[in-house]
Amino acid sequence: MMHRIILSASVILGILGILVAENPTYVPDATWHAPDTAAARLNPLATRPGAVRGGKKLFLRNCAECHGQDGTGMAKKHSANFYLSVVQEQSDGALFWKITNGNADRGMPSFSKLPELERWQLVLYLRMLNQQPLSSTR
After folding, report:
1. What is the pLDDT of residue 96?
2. pTM, entire model
3. What is the 3-state secondary structure of the chain?
């Protein structure tokens, strides 16, 4: 009985942690859209799930400073939470375009200096975030 109570409490705390660990200041930029041709691009690494490991390394090196190591956007004001549906519902091509071009008005730098395949690896990693519990990304 005590084991069930402890387990239930830890599940509830985990869920609350996920809800609280969202950047409350993040509001998507309604004007920041990839052109249709860019949004239609397919990730050439989509069939290579092993490439996500490199994407995580790239994310930690280039993105975590603002978006947090777990991708919740808690590290910096106005940073996107990559778990939100408004992010995850975008096409791979749209995410790639945003990584490539940045959004200077919102403090998102361009990562066009990264090789193209590395930017696609980042997209793979962002997709993976949505497929696992928040605590396992830390």
Report:
1. 98
2. 0.79
3. CHHHHHHHHHHHHHHHHHHHCCCCCCCCCCCCCCCHHHHCCCCCCCCCHHHHHHHHHHHHHHCHHHHCCCCCCCCCCCCCCCCCHHHHCCCHHHHHHHHHHCEHHHCECCCCCCCHHHHHHHHHHHHHHCCCCHHHHC
